[in-house]
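lol forgot to send this yesterday, sorry. struct tokens for the thing we talked abt
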């Protein structure tokens, strides 16, 4: 098991414990981490009144001493009137494969059809690129990846990345026709956050950040 893997797993454990701490504190529990109970260190303990919840986090193989300690903690909790023992497994993250059919096409259409969301939404994409040429238009999105989906009551929040492909025209149409101007294609890394309605249509573009540093530096 390499060092990078160990660091990653420890980071996942710490993140899990932080989330659990915030959750139980919001419910009025007193929270303790690495807490000594009956001669054993419990990973996470939450106490409110006569209720006690103990978590042990398993993110890898346990030796015999650890297995014995966990068994004794479980036995201790089982004897409490309002005790709970929970074992939480954490494994290495797997490569995500999330797809929403035609979402990349819908995002392109939303950016092109400025009236659909108003100039503010389209402007988020254009702000960084619109001054790079006389005319800038969205041509497509490549390497479109969805990173996360959060489903709420009436909307779905989607975040992800991709490359915004644009046509950049230098000079007027007449200049281009006379050979005094030119049209170039560029692709810029971008991140996005969208809200979708229950039908999967784009309701709003919450964030759209385009990185043009490769072009300007």
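and heres what i got for the seq, position by position
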């Amino acid at each position: 098991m390499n060092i990078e893997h160990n660091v990653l797993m420890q980071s996942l454990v710490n993140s899990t414990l932080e989330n659990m701490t915030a959750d139980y504190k919001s419910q009025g529990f007193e929270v303790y981490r690495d807490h000594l109970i009956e001669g054993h260190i419990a990973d996470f303990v939450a106490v409110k009144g006569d209720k006690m919840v103990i978590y042990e986090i398993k993110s890898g193989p346990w030796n015999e001493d650890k297995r014995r300690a966990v068994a004794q903690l479980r036995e201790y909790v089982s004897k409490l009137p309002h005790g709970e023992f929970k074992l939480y497994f954490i494994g290495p993250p797997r490569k995500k494969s999330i797809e929403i059919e035609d979402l990349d096409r819908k995002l392109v259409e939303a950016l092109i059809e400025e009236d659909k969301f108003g100039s503010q939404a389209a402007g988020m994409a254009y702000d960084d690129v619109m001054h790079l040429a006389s005319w800038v238009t969205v041509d497509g999105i490549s390497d479109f990846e969805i990173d996360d989906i959060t489903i709420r009551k009436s909307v779905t929040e989607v975040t992800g990345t991709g490359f915004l492909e644009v046509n950049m025209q230098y000079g007027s149409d007449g200049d281009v026709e006379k050979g005094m101007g030119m049209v170039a294609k560029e692709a810029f890394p971008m991140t996005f956050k969208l809200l979708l309605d229950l039908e999967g249509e784009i309701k709003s573009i919450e964030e759209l950040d385009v990185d043009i540093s490769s072009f300007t530096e």
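The helical segments are 3-26, 64-78, 103-112, 114-117, 119-126, 173-177, 213-216. anyway ping me if u want another try
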